Amino acid sequence: MKCPYCGAVDSKVIDSRPTDDAARIRRRRECLNCKKRFTTYEIVETVALMVVKKDKQREAFDREKLMRGLMRASYKRPVSYEMLETMVDNIEQTLLSTYEREVSSIEIGELAMQELKAVDEVAYVRFASVYRQFSDINTFMDELKTLLSRQGLGDE
Question: Model-level pTM?
Fold first, then answer.
């Protein structure tokens, strides 16, 4: 690690500890040349996750874009911001754990619907109506019937 004071490249680590969020390692170092101390942070380098859209275009995965979609679906619903953050974390972790660097937007949408269905069914139906592009009321009703039948409440 290059010393910020004298530019020497030799230093020794005096202390290492994780940061509060445990996403980085904080290291106190001492330059072997000038003996001054400085702090560095070490983070895991991740390869960008690419999303393959329906029209075959590729763009970088955007947590905020996913969060906005979930927020729109859960507008005026009893879904907290922390719950939404957890959903986005779960989706991102699932995507990263596949070791694939390209993922389809369809897969992301399906994961988002799974997360929403577990938290709030109205938000799930809202998201599904946009994601699956319901063309008419019958398509919408089919999705509601499927949801109700899974609960054991439909067609009685």
Answer: 0.61
